[in-house]
Amino acid sequence: MTAVSSITLERVSANFEREPLVRPFGFKGGYQSEIWQSVARLESGRGRSGLGLCTQGVLWSDAQVFAGHSESGGNALMYAVTEWAVQQLKGQAFANPIDLLEGIRHDVYAYAKKITGQAGLRETFALNALVGVDFAAWLLYAAENEITNFDDLIPLAYRSALATKHAKVASIPLMAYAVPIAELKTAVDQGYFFMKIKIGQPGTQVEMLEKDKARMSAIHAAIGDARTPYTASGKLPYYFDANGRYESKETLLRLLDHAKAIGAFEQIALIEEPFPEELEIDITDIPARVAADESAHTDKDALKRIEMGYTAIALKPIAKTLSMSLKIAQIAHERGVPCFCADLTVNPILVEWNKNVAARLAPFPGLGLGLLETNGHQNYRNWETMRSYHPAPAAAWAQTTGGVFALDADFYARSGGIFSAQPHYEAMFAAPV
Asked: Interhelix angle for 131-144 vs 322-334, to 10°?
């Protein structure tokens, strides 16, 4: 069919619900106890609609906003940005979701800086607030153009970056500061082989480094001898995420020296976002693969990081919008920089959006399969209830088995269920009786 040239937004709305966590979730030197799930709904003049979900990550997207307010206050600010954004869209017309995002994100960012009182607000805060709006636009665009498959949804300009179809994608759990070593060992026993381990613990730089060295030693002593069929060496790859806590290259190199001393260095597959993003230094001499995450707000930022020596990019369609993530993926693909999909402790339906991207990225070096972090099952108190909102919770591809998601023809045919009805979230917009 011929693509609809313009979609006018006649009705817009937003809502949210709060989901408690099993335990305080620690990273970036802070702790959060709940996560807000916001929802945006966009309806066209033709009566078609799109419903987009968003998991709010205030601490992840801007730690200063998180620290400067109560936890609920920071979440309320991000939700207010989402609400403002959808209201600005009422009556507007758009040709495609990428153009829609590009047309609004600068104004949304300015508004976010204003209401948070942070002139130096990280742009990822605004992008995080726009995730549900962006997904709603993609699903409305799909409905208007009768698109029912993720492959057909990807614009031609970005398809070369998402040209693979993995039969397996590694399921990456998250080991935050407070996760006991015994729990990490249990995950290995269950088949998980690629785990994201939070470093950059609270305290001064000296205190942080000593804590991180001790944590690394304890982890390596516990699982260093475990085996996996997914690496050439048979050993487990280590994935450390510092969330910008290391304030100098020298401090990071001291951690790597410790890794060498205990025999863990060769197993380090990734170190993610070690430095504050304002520390714009050349890192080509760091003897490990370093990934950019929250510092790669946009495609321009991602290119800058690549030029600084970053050799991997953590894509977050579920935290920086699908529209921006497609641009980042293409920039990285054209420069031979591998990408993988990182989590934001998102809900089960957003896991499928992330999985659709991870399933199509080029194989990660040294592993030969895609990578997808998902840690909601570890952190949400009501995870099983949230799974009941998934359109196909019992599908094999919706569950981790032996540390991987097995992606069969049914997964690709149904695109992980992202085009299916979402009764629980749709009920949040039911007309009053």
From this structure: 90
CATH for 156-425? 3.20.20.120
**Identity of the residue numbered 27:** F
For 11, 15, 81, the CA distances from 43, given in Å and listed in that order, are 5, 15, 19
Classified as helix, coil or strand, 5 is coil
- Residues forming beta bridges with residue 16, ordered by sequence position: 38
Q: What is the pLDDT of residues 295-326, one digit of tens each?
A: 899 999 999 999 999 999 999 999 999 999 99
Q: What is the DSSP string of 125-148?
A: HHHHHTHHHHHHHHHHHHHHTT--
| Strand-by-strand arrangement of the 339-341 sheet | 174-175, 195-198, 238-241, 268-272, 290-292, 312-315, 339-341, 370-373, 168-172, 404-406
pLDDT digits (tens, 9 = 90+) for 142-199: 999 999 999 999 999 999 999 999 999 999 998 888 789 999 999 999 999 998 999 9
Does the global pTM surpass 0.90? Answer: yes
First CA to last CA distance, the chain: 38
Say which CATH superfamily domain 7-148 falls into: Enolase-like, N-terminal domain (3.30.390.10)
Residue spans per domain, the chain:
7-148, 156-425
- Pull the structure tokens for residue 217: 């030693």
- Is the CB of residue 200 less than 8 Å from the CB of residue 28? yes
